[in-house]
Design a protein that fits this description.
The complex is a heterodimer of chains A (245) and B (178).
Chain A: H1 4-18, H2 27-64, H3 75-84, H4 104-108, E1 124-129, E2 141-149, E3 155-159, E4 163-169, E5 172-175, E6 185-189, E7 194-201, E8 214-226, E9 232-244
Parallel strand pairs in A: 4-7
Antiparallel strand pairs in A: 1-2, 2-7, 3-6, 3-8, 4-5, 4-8, 8-9
Chain B: H1 2-32, H2 35-50, H3 59-80, H4 82-86, H5 88-92, H6 102-115, H7 119-129, H8 135-142, H9 146-164
Helix pairs in contact in B: 1-2, 1-3, 2-3, 6-9, 7-9, 8-9
Classes of the chains: A alpha+beta (245), B mainly alpha (178).
């Protein structure tokens, strides 16, 4: 290597000989993931429009009426989960009907989205534990996501080799754990069973930057499907604030 | 309207991959030095770009955004691998045997030495000598100052020169631009 012209030539020769071809790019998977990223901003615009139209009257109405997306029959489950110290149960932020299974949790935790509130689904709850000291060498946070099925039905959970979470600050997702593979292994969880999944949370910001020191909340979402009815929902849990140095 | 807009960016995505996919993969490959990682970087760059890109961009502009996203993703992943990189030279030292194919040896040496650079050093070297970009353009792409780019280039080239200089000493040639 005698000159920098040679360096450039060597790099180009190496790339020409060894770089993969464009056929390895899965355009459908890229479009799918890109759509998931774009959707939260579209929702935000729509939501702001609706809020503006309803005005304070609408907000006040929300404050005095029970969450409309939780059926009355679920109130017992709600109380049980709250008393058990699991994920807090609030109104289910349902994804639009146009979303397919497996897209909902990804969409909810995408960069720039409003951090969703914790929720259970038909007696299935999710809780997370992220010890402050549990860090990977690369800075990622480690923890455990626990799914408890207190329903009388078997549920199927979509989780790619474990759970992944996002970090939120000021109610907005600022770091997401993107799984570009799109490979998900359904896990069957029988009635009354519990399951611990390893949890990993990226500390890299949405623009690829290292997150600034400060407090962040961990938000985890998993898609679930009830085996008997095929009904799909999303489990959401948050961990107490973690501090990044 | 929304459906039409979605078709717009998705059509551009398909066109970009078809027309410039190979070039994007070569760019990613020289950054990371691994075909599998290159494919991952390109897909991540495409998702990051088309997850935000509005309609109306020329394909050249979209490609520039994707290249920048690929570089950012590479630097970010490299930051995560800092601990491994600190000992990479211990794992990658080639066996000291006579090999008939000196070209192959040099290519392996180059790959090993590039792997020993920090992510920013490698990105600067690649953008400068593979991408033939000017220092100011590299600085804009990486979001750092031109002075920092020059420092990364100087440090990176010094590391490369230490092991690859089997000819005249490697020094950054003056090309008449920043």
């Amino acid at each position: 290597m005698s000159s920098f012209d040679d360096l450039g030539r060597a790099l180009r020769d190496d790339a020409a000989a060894n770089a993969p071809r464009a056929s390895v790019i899965d355009v459908d998977a890229v479009a799918h993931a890109a759509r998931a990223r774009r959707r939260p901003r579209q929702w935000t615009v729509g939501t702001l429009s609706v809020v503006a139209a309803l005005g304070m009257g609408g907000l006040a109405l929300q404050a005095v009426t029970p969450p409309t997306l939780i059926a009355a029959s679920e109130s017992a489950d709600t109380a049980t989960v709250e008393s058990a110290g699991g994920a807090d149960v609030l109104s289910q932020p349902q994804a639009p009907e146009t979303l397919g299974d497996g897209e909902r949790s990804v969409t909810l935790l995408a960069c720039g989205a409003t951090a969703p509130e914790p929720s259970s689904f038909r007696g299935v709850t999710l809780s997370v534990d992220v010890p402050q000291s549990a860090r990977m060498a690369d800075g990622d946070l480690m923890g455990v996501a626990t799914i408890a099925n207190s329903s009388s039905d078997t549920v199927s959970i979509s989780a790619p080799a474990g759970a992944s979470g996002s970090l939120a600050q000021g109610g907005v997702i600022v770091a997401e754990s993107l799984d570009a593979s799109g490979v998900e292994q359904p896990i069957e969880l029988g009635a009354g069973d519990r399951l611990d999944l390893p949890l990993r949370v990226s500390t890299v910001g949405c623009e690829g930057e290292a997150l600034a020191a400060g407090g962040y909340s961990v938000v985890v979402a998993l898609d679930v499907v009830m085996a008997s009815t095929g009904e799909a929902g999303v489990l959401i849990a948050t961990a107490p604030a973690v501090r990044l140095d | 309207m929304a459906q039409k807009a979605r078709e717009g960016w998705e059509a551009m995505l398909a066109t970009l991959v078809a027309e410039r996919g190979d070039a994007l993969l070569r760019h990613a490959y020289v950054l990371c030095g691994n075909p599998d990682d290159a494919a991952d970087l390109v897909q991540a760059g495409l998702v990051a770009t088309f997850g935000r890109l509005r309609n109306g961009f020329a394909i050249e502009k979209a490609e520039a955004y994707v290249r920048r996203a690929i570089t950012s993703a590479y630097i970010d992943r490299g930051r995560r691998a800092t601990r491994w990189r600190a000992t990479a030279h211990l794992h990658l030292t080639p066996e000291l045997v006579d090999a008939p194919d000196t070209v192959t040896d040099r290519r392996l040496d180059l790959k090993a030495e590039l792997d020993g650079l920090s992510p920013r050093e490698r990105a600067c070297v690649v953008l400068r000598y593979y991408g033939d970009q000017k220092v100011d353009d590299i600085a804009a792409d990486l979001g750092i100052s031109p002075g920092a780019v020059k420092r990364y280039l100087s440090d990176g080239l010094a590391k490369l020169a230490a092991s690859l200089s089997d000819g005249p000493a490697l020094t950054e040639p003056r090309r008449g631009h920043a």
